[in-house]
Fold:
Amino acid sequence: MTETMEARLKRMRMRSWRRGTKEMDLILGPWADERLATMDLAELDLYDLLLEENDQDLYPWVSGAQPCPVQYLDLLSKISVFAKARHGRA
Structure:
C-alpha cells in the first residue's frame, strides 16, 4: 500500500521531533512544522533521506563543524539559517 501525502508528512514531522538528541529535535522539529507542507516532492525525498542519517553526523553538518555530503549541502544550509534565525543568531 502506498503512503498518502498526509501520512508521509505526519511521519516525517514526527521523525523530525523525535530524533535521539535534543539538539536535533530542536533544529529539525520546527523546520518540519514550518516547511514540510510547502516542499515539493524532490525536496521531500531529500529530506526523507536526511532523516535516515545519524544525529552524530547531522549535528556537525548543520552546525558547520564538519563538511556535509554534497547532496545535503543546500538543504542543510537552509535548515541552519532557519535554526539560527529562530534562536536569535544570524
Observations:
- The two ends are 44 Å apart (CA to CA).
